From TrEMBL:
This is Polysaccharide polymerase. The chain crosses the membrane at residues 33-54, 101-121, 142-169, 189-208, 220-243, 294-314, 335-356, 362-380. The keyword Transmembrane applies. Keywords: Membrane, Transmembrane, Transmembrane helix. It comes from the Bacteria. The keyword Transmembrane applies.
Amino acid sequence: MIGALILLFILFLLTQGIYSSMAKRHSFFSRKLMNYLFFYHVFFFGVYYTYALFNPSDSKRYFDSPQEGNLDWIDFFGTSTTFIEFISYPFVNYLHFNYEMMMVLFAWLGFIGFLYAYLFFRENIPVKIKVFRSIDLLTLILFFPNMHFWTASLGKGAPIFMGLMMFAYAVKNPKSRLFPLIAGTILVYYIRPHVFLFVAVGTVLGYMSGKEKISFGRKILIYVAMIGGLLLVQDQILAMGGIEDSNDLVSDFQDFSEDRSQGLSTSGSGVDMASYPLPYKFFTFWFRPLFFDAPGILGLITSVENLMYLLLFIKILKADFIKFIKNSPVAVKMSLVVFLLSSFAMTFIMSNLGIIMRQKSMVMYFIFFVIYYYLAQKKYNRIMFARKKKRLKEIAMRKKEELAFVE
C-alpha cells in the first residue's frame, strides 16, 4: 500500500502540471474545482478497492493475467479484454507495480476522463445552469457517484471513459488537438470496437448536419478518417458478436443478442429484457435500478442517482426539443447519436442490472451534454429576449422624450 500512496502523490503532482497547461489554453479552467474532483475520485478509488477485497472483481484478473505463462508484451495486443492486459503488462512485469498501484494508476486514468469531460462541457457551454432549485448542473454531473465508482479501478471502465471524453473534447478542433484525438480513438476502438462504431457514425452525422459553417476540407478530413477507419476495422467490430463471416447480419445479430441476454439474466440481478417493448428497454438501461429493484446497498445508492437522471431527462421532454436538435451544433448531434446508438445496441444484450450500472457509465455523459446544452440554450434565448425587449423599450422612451421636446 505504501507504493500505491507514493504513486498517488506522483500522479497528483503530474496532474497539477496538466492543470497549468489547460489553464493556459482555457480561461475558464478552475484548478480549485478540479482538485476537489481529484480527491473525490480518490475517495471512490478507496471505496472500490474496499469493495474488491470482499467481492469478486475483474480487476484481480486483469492484474494476474499479464503475469501468467511465458507470453511477451506483444502477445496481449488485441481488442477488448486483452488490450487492458496489454496496457497493464509493462507496469506489472517491467516496473513491478503491485495490485494496489495498478488500481491507483487506472483510477487516475478515470480522473483524466473527468478532466476532459469538464473541458468538453465548459468549452461548449459557457452558460451556468441551476437545477433542483440551487444546484449547479455541471458540478452535479461531474460529481455523480456511480460514474466515479466504475471508473476508479483496474479494468475497462476508466480507460474507455477517458478515451471517449478525450475524443469528444478534441473533435471540435482536431488539427490543434491531434494527440487527444488519436489517443481517444485508439482507446475506444481497442477496448470496445462496437462503441468506436457508434462514435464514428455520430461524428459523421454531426458534421453532416451541424449548424456551424465548417470548411469543405475539414468535413472531408473527418468523413475520410471516420468512414475509412470503419472499413478497416469492420471485421474486428463484427467479430465482437461472432458474426464476422455472416451472410445475414440482422438475423445473426438477433441470435447473438438473444444468447447474450439469456446468459446475463441468470444472476440474482437479472431482468428479462428480451420480452420488454423497446421503450421499456431504454428505460431499464437508462434509469434502473430504481428503489423497487435495487440489488443490494450499491443498488440503493445508484437508485438515488438514477432518479436524478430521470428528473434531468424529463427536462428535455418538451415540444421545442426537436426544433432545438435540428438547429443544434455538431457536438450536440454527435452526442445524441452516440448515446442513442449505444443504448439501442446495449439494450439487446444487457439483462443484468449490475452490468447495466457499469456499462451505461460509458455513455451517460453524452446525454447529460445534450440536456445541459438544451437548458443553456433556453436560458440564453431568455436573456437575449429580455435584452432586446429592454432595448426596444429604451428606444421608445427616447423617441417619446424627443417628441415632447419638439412640442
